[in-house]
Amino acid sequence: MGYVIALANQKGGVGKTTTSVNLGACLADLGKKVLLIDLDPQGNATSGLGIDKKSIKQSVYDVLINDVDLSDIILPSSHKGMDIAPTTIALSGAEVELTSLMARETRLKDAFGSVKDEYNYILIDCPPSLGLLTINAFTACDSILIPVQSEYYALEGLSQLLNTIKLVRKHFNPDLKIEGVLLTMFDKRTNLGQQVNAEVKKFFGSQVYQTIIPRNVRLSEAPSHGEAIVDYDKRSTGAHVYQQLAKEVLANHGE
Ligand code: ADP
Ligand code: MG
């Protein structure tokens, strides 16, 4: 059975998509079969993995709203060993459309079917909000990986996120866990980075990954080439740190 990890933080621009794409690619390089579900209407993971959005016939939107099977929308990504459930901007309407549907919080979970058996890891790239799309991810997943950007107010909003996790545990998914907390866009030249690191560790303790993702311009360039960092520039710092993170994630799973 595939293990499902949602990458979430309602703040935008903290590294959710970058981490989904590159952690996924590095897990695939370690021999895992990986599916990335793009649950953000922006579709940055979809285009970042080389999918031309104009070519998409059915997307995550159809899975959530039109009862299309998840297996029917899956495409191979530009990275070997990783598939993607793509999204288009149509998904931006889903947040509202879901409101009036039956089983609105469990639609993603209900759509998995046999797809779960075909992958070792399924990553869900969440939108920057705590609305119904994110609730669907939290209901469908085993655990949540929280990227935290190394900046002032890094912890701001995290109590809301933890509160949402608590509510989902209570109503839909009692076994929901925190997979880990990842510091991103770290700048080791400033004291701020060290301060944020200490603060996040004080708050989350051993749930914080040893691996810290530094700022690396190659990581921000790779998506416009439709490639994961290990395909765009294998020798970059960005590639090395995401390889390290993938190993740490597997080690936490006893692999
Ligand atoms: P989110 O999905 O949380 O909104 P993204 O992963 O899209 O965040 O990252 C926001 C922006 O920052 C993107 O332009 C991305 O390319 C860039 N970025 C993410 N991580 C890094 C990093 N470690 N170093 C440099 N740029 C990064
Ligand atoms: Mg994103």
UniProtKB/TrEMBL annotation:
<comment type="subunit">
    <text>Dimerizes in the presence of ATP but not ADP; ATP-binding is required for double-stranded (ds)DNA-binding. Interacts with DnaA.</text>
</comment>
<dbReference type="InterPro" id="IPR050678">
    <property type="entry name" value="DNA_Partitioning_ATPase"/>
</dbReference>
<feature type="domain" description="AAA">
    <location>
        <begin position="4"/>
        <end position="178"/>
    </location>
</feature>
<comment type="similarity">
    <text>Belongs to the ParA family.</text>
</comment>
<dbReference type="InterPro" id="IPR027417">
    <property type="entry name" value="P-loop_NTPase"/>
</dbReference>
<protein>
    <recommendedName>
        <fullName>Sporulation initiation inhibitor protein Soj</fullName>
    </recommendedName>
</protein>
<dbReference type="Pfam" id="PF13614">
    <property type="entry name" value="AAA_31"/>
</dbReference>
<dbReference type="InterPro" id="IPR025669">
    <property type="entry name" value="AAA_dom"/>
</dbReference>
